[in-house]
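## retry 2 of 3
previous attempt timed out at serialization; input unchanged, resubmitting
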Amino acid sequence: MNVSSKFMILRELQILTSLDNSEVEQLADKVQLVQFKKGQPIYLSDAAIDQVYILFKGSAKLGVQVTGEREIIRGIIHSGEIFGENIFNTRKRQEYAVCLEDSRVFTIPVSHYQLLLTSNAGFRNAIIEYMMHNVSVLRKRIHNYMFYNAQRRIIEFIKDLTEKTGRKLVNGEYLVHHKMNHLAIANSTDTSRQTVARVLNELKSMSLISYSDRRPSKIIVRPSLFAVN
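## retry succeeded, writing output
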C-alpha cells in the first residue's frame, strides 16, 4: 500500500483526529500495514517495545498467561483502536496481543510515536484519555469480580460488548459478532468455560439473547437484556 492510500485510511481514524494533514502524511510514510492470521500473535510478552499498533481491520485480544490454557484477557481490540501504546513504564511488553480473526494492523515505530506525543499536545491528551479509559475499564472489571456473581459478570460483559461493537437492527435488537469462544469469554469475565456455556444457554432460553449453535460467535442481543440487574 502506498503512502497516499495509507494517508486516506489514517486520516479517518478517531484516535488521530488531532493530527494535521502534514503530520498524518509523515505518519503514513513511517507506518507499515501488516497482515496477521487468526490466532497469530502480533507481539508476545517480554518482547521489546519497538512498535505501537493501530488495528485497521479485524480484532485481537490482549492477554496474560497464567497457567496451562488459563489466561487473563485484559481487553479486546477492535478496528480503529490503538494498542501497545503504553511505552512509559517498561521496556518490555507486559502482555501479549493475538488476533481473534484475520486482521490488518498498522505498526508505528516507537521513535515516531514519541515524536508525535512530544510535538502535538492534542494527540498526547487523546492518548492519555484513552489510557485512562482503559484504567476505568479495569476498575469496573475488578468491581464486577468483587460484587457480582458469575452470571452477572457475563451479562455485564455482553452488555459492554453490545454497546461497543453491536450493530443495531431494524427491529431494535443488536447483532454482536464477537469472534470469541467460551474460553475467551471465561477469561474475560473471570469465570469458567462451563459457566459461560451454562449462562449463555440460560439467557437464550429466557429469550434475552439468540445465537446458532453452528455460529455461537454471532449473538443477537435483545433490548430486554439491558433491563437485567
